[in-house]
Design goal:
- It is a single chain.
- Strands 1, 2, 3, 4, 5, 6, 7 and 8 form an 8-stranded mixed β-sheet that branches.
- The longest helix is centred in the first third of the chain and has 32 residues, at 2-33.
- 16% of the residues lie in helices and 38% in strands.
- The chain folds into 2 domains: 1-35; 49-188.
- The protein has one helix spanning 2-33, and strands at 49-51, 54-64, 77-88, 101-103, 114-117, 132-142, 150-161, 171-188.
- It has 1 helix and 8 strands, in the order αββββββββ.
Length: 195
């Protein structure tokens, strides 16, 4: 009987200690969850940055009031344009670059930009491994949309996994916000409308 009572006391103590440890861990996790989110860093403009499968170097941003790199605008529209040098860091030609840049704080009719090579206006080309190309990201905007003099763009990167969890094949996964770039935004009037 003494042994049974002793076993019961040990069981209660063990269960109580486990409960206390679980509550302590849950409290810590809740405390860390309440911490402010980590702010992505401001990325440099003067050097190239590795952003997952792309190496990027933003060059300039401007608002265009006319057709830009073959992207047609509807009457009353203008376009926000971001030009960036991009290098494909992978071993294959690729055009999975649509989500790399996103302007912060602007109401976009379509968050998906039109993208063109600046050298010849080719729309959505595949970029070849190791070749740096200057690309123009073009977002149509309403003519009355206000664009600040300095605009921040979020930069999205991905993580390379030699094997994914579903098929066991290599690829780029888990997009995340790598950081932010901030550029001055020039205003480029349509031809024939300047002073």
């Amino acid at each position: 009987m003494f042994r049974t009572a002793r076993s019961k006391v040990q069981t209660w103590i063990t269960a109580g200690a486990g409960t206390i440890a679980a509550l302590f861990v849950a409290g810590l996790m809740g405390a860390f969850g309440a911490l402010p989110a980590h702010t992505p860093p401001l990325l440099p403009l003067d050097t190239a940055t590795d952003a997952g499968r792309w190496r990027i170097r933003p060059v300039r941003a401007y608002v265009s009031h006319a057709r830009t790199y073959g992207v047609l605008l509807k009457p009353g529209q203008k376009a926000l344009v971001l030009e960036a040098d991009m290098t494909n860091r992978t071993a294959r030609s690729d055009k999975a670059y649509f989500d790399v840049f996103k302007p912060d704080g602007l109401a976009l009719a379509d968050p998906m930009p039109m993208i063109a090579l600046t050298r010849d206006g080719t729309l959505t080309p595949e970029l070849h491994p190791g070749m740096t190309e200057r690309m123009a990201y073009v977002w149509p905007l309403a003519g009355e949309a206000a664009v600040p003099a300095n605009l921040s763009f979020g930069v999205t990167a991905e993580i390379f996994k030699p094997r994914d969890n579903l098929y066991g094949t290599p690829g780029w996964f888990n997009p995340y916000r790598l950081g932010t770039i901030t550029l001055p935004v020039a205003d480029v009037p349509a031809p024939g409308t300047g002073p």
